[in-house]
Amino acid sequence: MSPVTGPSSPPPAEDTPRHYGLGPRAAAVLVFGASAAVLVVEIVALRLLAPYLGLTLETSTTVIGIALTAIALGSWLGGRIADHVDPRRLLGPSLGVSGAVVALTPAVLRSTAEWAPVLLLLIASLTILLPGALLSAVTPIVTKLRLTSLAETGTVVGRLSGVGTVGAIVGTVLTGFVLVSRLPVSGILIGLGALLVVGSALVEWRTRRWIGTAVLVFVIIAGGLATTVAPGACDTETRYHCARVVADPDRPSGRTFVLDGLRHSYVDLDDPTFLEFTYVRAIASVVDAAFPQGEPLVAHHLGGGGLTYPRYLAATRPGTRSLVSEIDSGVIRINRDHLGLRAEAGIDVRAEDGRLALRRLDADSRDLVVGDAFGGVSVPWHLTTVEAMTDVRRVLDEDGLYVANLIDHGALSFARAEVATLGETFEYVAVVGEPTDIGFTETTASEGGNMVVLASDRPVGLGTVQEALDARETGWKIATGDDLTSWIGGAQPLTDDYAPVDQLLQPYGPPSSH
Asked: 140-152 as b/e, with b when 16 or more CB fall inside 10 Å?
């Protein structure tokens, strides 16, 4: 029997090329851009939520968890749907709808926080989950479009997976090092939303489905306009904070410095000796009692805020040299532009991390170290440990004093642990605060708030401190000795190896001043 001749049979279905007109470069661009966008949304969401939920470990963990859920959900559903629907019909809507949601996010979240705060976490989850899932679906959709045969599955999947990972890295680095420091959060999200809608239009242009694109463009414009009138916008967005300077209607020269919705400082532009916040008056009382009146000091301040206390030292102790370590260069700029900081005031403010700054200081070089650094509602954990306090003790001279502002509520677990930490490092430790917070009143539950801790290797005249507190009408008392030991209870010192500050801290209570 002779062999059959004629046209050859077609190859099996799985070997038939199915590029659908999507070249390798276009595929890489789509996967790279979508993956980068997911990380931009995740990082910027943290900044957008900080004024309302705080910049804590719990907030960061929640946002990261939602973003990872979106990535997993989008990757799974995107691949499954692409197996049953023409993937060419999925790319444009995935990019366009995600772009519209991203652009609307600033206005929606800020309005929700103002008018329906109980829904904030739910709405925030949706504004991360929806665009994150749609953008994460792009990779399996593009992979489906690029596969030509089972023989090259590994190459296509591996290449696109690698491109997506690189895109995520670029999105992370670009946002953290460039975008956040140069653009407002709302500008980043509206701009990203616009780019995604443009990408959707480019993908869809051959299908002539312009009505959907036009609607999405309208949504982008509406999102931009809504952001300008939504509540909660900042005067200035710094690298770390949403910042505002609020004039005091009862004191023409008074200014309140608000970071992420919390009052961090009160500055009197004409009278630096005017101290509005009780905790600042308490710090002033401790230092004034610990050192001779008017004697100039060499001080280091961990955290700047509105520089209220460095200004007070410059006014009441002429010749004082204050070095301030403030991690946020935007905060420093606001002090110079809006809060009257002058170069000749004897205050040297540097944009640097406080812990690293301590390491660079010479031993026995400071009379005073003041701790008043906060990230959201908590002291940065690496400034609370035995190792950090050992650095503080090293830079203080033999008569030096460390004084710090703490905030806690409820059981005061963090405050107790921090005082226990100082007890591991310094010979003399005392706490100044409301009587109900430091154990002087047994019948009233502690509400918490600000308290001040002082530590030194030489005794401080606590009677003189109490007189100064009374003169400033703080209403605060001092706990030391056995009373302080009883108040600390079984609290364990914090170390670099174990410092669960965010978990110990109970930030929920009446608004406190940082």
From this structure: bbbbbbbbeeeee
